[in-house]
């Protein structure tokens, strides 16, 4: 039993078993990414070089027509810019509301922490569409819109159908995605660092800027990206709260795929949108990280 | 807060606007369709002895009885707009032909239906696309020719709905319901005459700026400028489209909303006074005292009529049940119940004897002859680049 080969074998077997186990555990996630992320991206990219089939849909081809059409007409690019500034404003809005909220829950809420987190999650139990429709009522002329109109004496005053209503819907819809990552990083923060900062004579704002904010940065970046990306492609909120008057990329995409059934053109728009988002996010991460030599914050 | 939301959901589920809507069917109607399905089993008891009453009706109408040699399958798979077949008729059909499973799946627009067929075998027996999509469905090989000897009740279809350019030899489609695109307005709010597209244009640019809603549908919105300049609504002439573009861009800053899903709510709340839209919501709005002043006109320059049709899906798994249904649904009394239920015009002449007189006399549902004469059927022009460019420019300008 004490032969050298016998002792080597179980070790090798264990190693291959653990490799097998690793493969088995990673496999579902790998398959998920391959089928639901990589494959659709490849399909969209391939489609974007195709032609619209006679009755709509996709016909195999290799042409740059979709891109030239997209880039050559200024009105085609308008939804891109509207989407971008809406998403940037929405992200900043989420940050302005989300950071104090996350900070409060993480540091001040004490025993109510669990309850507050639960309250943030509860809206997710209801369909997004229904929640957006309920804003239609809250902001409508029978309620808030009419109330403000009566105060300023303008019977035609409306909140709905204007960019601020869309912005409000965006911030409301995506706020939790900003709060959770911020909460997680702030919750782990060593509170003694703040005390040390105060002991060393830093004022509140200096402490926030030099201690709290750098610690919260990973959560801030993750949160910003989590809200920015879906906001850029948002379709439902501008259609309902914006009365279809704020024409975003998501709406242009629906038009391309549904109303005109031009899948290749829609795909080209989608590819361009992905490229624009990648650029914006890269610049953003670079901007936030600059000057933080050696302690770069990764995206996810 | 709960009550108004409930009200919106109720309205969304009751009126038949979602026939052409995208959002409502995507989310809200999933729930309401389920509710309707629950409700239908409850209403079956209230329909007067369905199995007995319909059999004599079919024979008394004089049509030859369907050949009995076909064995009717125990199930039928239908792909249709939401709430587009009367639950009473579904129960009646099941009882009469021994069909146990009547699967009623819904689509929100023709594009969704087309996409489903393009993706491969759908497994459906019957579908109800709008007629302008028939050429595409035929070309794709998604539907099959109908053997009219097995649908004797086809004889009741008005000649005006036969031989149309969508299906010139009447091989593939059995007309189901028709309707128009026109102007909806609250007569309480609009005292000026609303009779033409020109009126709508003037009112929108003038007194009712910011109080006009357009449905979010390219084909329907183009009717207005093209008819105003006396062109065909199917025009692809570059000069005419440029004139249309000017008119649309003039209108853009004055439009309250581009909305196919909740335009009836905007009319009901009086936020909107005028609307370029469909007949769908008027039945429900008239029934409510608060909105009973709603009016619908087909503009005098002419407009579009759409026709929804029954088609037989290629490789239908239950062809005999499908044929039984196609013939059953055009039985005059059954068809009359359909019209009373959905509030759209029926192409079945014989059915008019049994339709509720109030519905039949409603010019919004059954337009008079002279109005009918000015209606044009739509050709699928969703590939026309010039139109698409104008449409997108219009949409971007609406934002202000």
Description:
With 300 residues, chain A is mainly alpha-helical. Helix content of chain A is 74%, strand content 1%. Chain A has helices at 4-47, 65-72, 74-107, 113-121, 128-139, 144-152, 163-188, 191-199, 204-232, 236-240, 249-259, 263-289, and strands at residues 51-52, 58-59. Chain A has a two-stranded antiparallel ribbon. The N and C termini of chain A lie far apart (51 Å). Residues 1-8 of chain A have low confidence and may be disordered. Chain B has two domains: 2-177 and 307-360, Periplasmic binding protein-like II (D-Maltodextrin-Binding Protein, domain 2, 3-Layer(aba) Sandwich), CATH 3.40.190; 179-305 and 367-398, D-Maltodextrin-Binding Protein, domain 2 (3-Layer(aba) Sandwich), CATH 3.40.190. Chain B contains 18 helices and eleven strands. Chain B has helices at 2-14, 23-26, 28-43, 50-60, 87-97, 110-118, 134-139, 197-205, 218-221, 223-228, 238-251, 263-268, 282-287, 319-329, 332-342, 357-360, 369-373, 385-398; strands spanning 75-80, 101-106, 126-127, 143-144, 173-186, 212-214, 255-258, 274-278, 294-297, 303-313, 375-377. In chain B, helix 1 (2-14) packs across helix 3 (28-43), helix 4 packs across helix 5 (87-97) and helix 11 runs parallel beside helix 18. The longest helix of chain B has 16 residues, at 28-43. Chain B is globular. Chains A and B meet through helix 3, helix 5, helix 10 and helix 11 of A and helix 1, helix 6, helix 7, strand 7 and helix 18 of B.
Rg over C-alpha atoms of chain B, rounded to the nearest angstrom: 21 Å
Number of domains of chain A: 1
Distance from N terminus to C terminus of chain A (CA atoms, Å) equals: 51 Å
Compute the average pLDDT of chain B. Answer: 83
DSSP strand (E) fraction of chain A? under 5%
The quaternary structure here is heterodimer
Strand order of the largest sheet of chain A: 1-2
Low-confidence stretches of chain B: 12-64
What's the gist of this structure?
The complex is a heterodimer of chains A (300) and B (400). Chain A has 300 residues and is mostly helical.
């Amino acid at each position: 039993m004490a032969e050298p080969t016998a002792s080597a074998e179980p070790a090798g077997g264990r190693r291959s078993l653990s490799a097998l186990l690793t493969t088995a555990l990673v496999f579902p996630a790998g398959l998920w990414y391959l089928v639901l992320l990589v494959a659709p991206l490849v399909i969209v990219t391939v489609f974007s070089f195709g032609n619209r089939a006679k009755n709509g849909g996709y016909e195999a081809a290799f042409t740059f027509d979709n891109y030239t059409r997209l880039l050559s007409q200024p009105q085609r690019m308008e939804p891109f810019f509207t989407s971008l500034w809406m998403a940037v404003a929405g992200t900043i809005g989420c940050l302005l509301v989300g950071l104090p909220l996350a900070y409060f829950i993480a540091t001040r809420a004490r025993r109510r922490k669990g309850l507050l987190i639960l309250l943030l999650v509860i809206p997710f139990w209801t369909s997004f569409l229904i929640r957006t429709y309920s804003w239609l009522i809250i902001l409508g002329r029978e309620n808030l819109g009419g109330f403000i109109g009566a105060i300023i004496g303008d019977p035609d005053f409306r909140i709905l159908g204007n960019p601020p209503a869309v912005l409000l819907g965006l911030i409301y819809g995506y706020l939790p995605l900003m709060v959770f990552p911020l909460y997680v990083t702030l919750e782990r923060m060593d509170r003694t660092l703040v005390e040390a900062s105060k002991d060393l004579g830093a004022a509140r704002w200096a402490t926030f800027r030099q201690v709290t904010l750098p610690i919260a940065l990973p959560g801030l970046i993750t949160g910003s990206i989590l809200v920015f990306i879906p906001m850029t492609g948002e379709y439902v909120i501008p259609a309902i709260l914006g009365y279809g008057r704020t024409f975003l990329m998501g709406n242009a995409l629906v038009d391309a795929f549904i109303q005109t059934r031009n899948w290749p053109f829609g795909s080209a728009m989608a590819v361009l949108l992905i490229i624009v988002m990648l650029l914006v996010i890269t610049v953003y991460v670079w901007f936030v990280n600059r000057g933080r030599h050696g302690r770069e914050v990764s995206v996810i | 807060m709960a009550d108004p939301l409930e009200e919106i959901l109720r309205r969304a589920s009751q009126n038949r606007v979602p026939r052409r809507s995208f959002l409502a069917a995507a989310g809200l109607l999933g729930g309401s369709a389920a509710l309707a399905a629950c409700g239908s089993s409850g209403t079956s008891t209230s329909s007067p002895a369905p199995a007995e009453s319909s059999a004599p009706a079919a024979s008394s109408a004089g049509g030859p009885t369907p050949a009995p040699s076909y064995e009717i399958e125990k199930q039928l798979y239908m792909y249709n707009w939401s709430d587009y077949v009367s639950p009473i008729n579904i129960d009646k059909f099941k009882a009469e032909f021994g069909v146990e499973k009547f699967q009623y799946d819904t689509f929100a627009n023709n594009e969704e239906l087309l996409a489903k067929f393009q993706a491969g075998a759908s497994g459906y027996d019957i579908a109800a696309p709008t007629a302008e999509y028939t050429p595409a469905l035929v070309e794709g090989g998604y539907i099959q020719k109908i053997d009219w000897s097995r649908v004797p009740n086809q004889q009741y279809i008005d000649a005006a709905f036969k031989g149309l350019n969508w299906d010139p030899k009447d091989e593939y489609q059995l007309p189901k319901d028709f309707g128009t695109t026109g102007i909806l307005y609250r007569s309480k709010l609009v005292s000026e005459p609303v009779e033409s597209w020109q009126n709508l244009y003037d009112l929108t640019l003038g007194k009712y700026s910011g109080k006009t809603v357009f449905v979010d549908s390219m084909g329907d919105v183009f009717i207005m400028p093209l008819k105003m300049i006396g062109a065909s609504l199917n025009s692809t002439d570059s000069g005419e489209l440029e004139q249309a573009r000017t008119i649309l861009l003039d209108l853009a800053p004055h439009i309250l909303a581009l909305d196919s899903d909740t335009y009836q709510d905007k009319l009901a709340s009086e936020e909107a006074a005028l609307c370029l839209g469909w007949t769908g919501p008027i039945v429900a709005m008239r029934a409510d005292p608060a909105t009973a002043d709603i009016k619908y006109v087909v503009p005098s320059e002419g407009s579009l009529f759409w026709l929804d049709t029954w088609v037989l899906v290629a490789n239908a798994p239950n062809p005999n049940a499908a044929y039984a249904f196609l013939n059953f649904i055009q039985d005059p009394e059954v068809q009359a119940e359909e019209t009373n239920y959905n509030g759209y015009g029926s192409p079945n002449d014989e059915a008019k004897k049994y339709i509720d007189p109030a519905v039949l006399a409603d010019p919004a549902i059954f337009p008079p002859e002279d109005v009918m004469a000015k209606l044009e059927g739509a050709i699928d022009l969703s590939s026309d680049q010039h139109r698409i460019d104008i449409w997108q420019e219009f949409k971007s300008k609406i934002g202000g």
